[in-house]
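subagent[fold] <- orchestrator: predict structure for attached chain, return C-alpha cells only, no commentary.
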Amino acid sequence: MRAKTLRPLPGYAIVYVVRPEPDSKNRLVKILADDVQIGKTVGGDFLLHEIKAGEHRISAKTAFSKYNLDMEFKEGRKYFIRLVLVKGKYSYEPKFKLLEEEEGKKELEKCTLSLMK
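subagent[fold] -> orchestrator:
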C-alpha cells in the first residue's frame, strides 16, 4: 500500500496515527491537528497526515474526552503515534504514545487506512 511508504514533501513531515487494537472497532475517535479534524479511526485503522514542519498539536477526541500531544515536527521525518483507548471512570479515554520508527512500521502493518473524514 502506497500510503505506508510515502516520503514527506519538502517543508513537511508525515504523521501516522496507528490504532492496531481491533477490539475497539465500535469506538470512533476523531483525530485533529491544531484543532482541525483530519480524520476518524476505529480499531485496526491508521490515519495519515502531512503536516508542515514546526510546532503542532495532535488531538484524539471521543464523545466524552480529549487527549492532546504537543510536539515539534521536523521536515522530512515520519512520526508514528499509537492511539489506545483506556477505560476511565465513565467512558473510554484516548491516549497517545510516540513510537520509534521501527516499532511504528510494525504497528502500521497491522492496520488498514482509515477513509473516514
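orchestrator: received. Logging for downstream: Strands lie at 12-19, 29-33, 36-41, 45-52, 54-61, 66-73, 78-87, 92-99, 112-113. The chain has one domain: 2-113.
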